[in-house]
Specification:
Radius of gyration: 12 Å
Distance between the termini: 18 Å
Shape: globular
Order of helices and strands: HHHHH
Structural class: mainly alpha
Mean pLDDT: 88
Length: 84
């Protein structure tokens, strides 16, 4: 994975979507969409994108908790603004 380019407003928006509160209406799909954006930017590995995909239908499902449970490495972009 490569590091993020210098931040821009669109990246900031996608980061905010990636870190939406668990349980919010539509949050699972929004997180998955943001994960796809970062996958296209080569900052989200396919294994973590799959976790976001699996959680996308269930707004209450925590992708970070699922990744830990499945033993999937969590990329730095997923930890942004969180305790690792």
């Amino acid at each position: 994975m490569t590091a993020l380019s210098p931040p821009n407003h669109f990246d900031d928006l996608q980061i905010a979507l990636l870190h939406q509160a668990i349980g919010g209406l539509g949050s699972g799909a929004s997180r998955y969409g943001a994960a796809m954006y970062f996958y296209a930017q080569h900052t989200m590995p396919a294994s973590m994108l799959e976790i976001y995909r699996a959680c996308s239908k269930f707004d209450h499902e925590d992708p970070i908790a699922m990744a830990r449970h499945e033993g999937v490495d969590i990329p730095p972009i997923s930890h942004h603004g969180m305790d690792a």
